[in-house]
Amino acid sequence: MQRQPRVRITGHCQGRMIQREITEEQIRAVVLNPISVIPVNNNKFRCYGSVNNPPYASEPFLLVIYARHINEIVVITTMWQDRGGLRANGFNNI
Prior knowledge:
The chain has 94 residues and is an alpha+beta fold. 27% of the residues lie in helices and 37% in strands. It has 3 helices and 5 strands.
């Protein structure tokens, strides 16, 4: 059985989490079990997923931007999105 990578949250992301009412548990759930992932550049990726009880009914998806390292995922930022916001971020399979 493969071990899950460590998920680390940057200081920038921690501030955004407070502003946007996002928990670390929600981020972990999306990063470790995303609906879709797209590469941004080098080792950076965007992913999104659904979580229980999002604070905004109009923006039900959680978008997470992160860097992937060998045994660690470093979360750079995160935000709530609707389908249009996901499409603007490159997700066409919605």
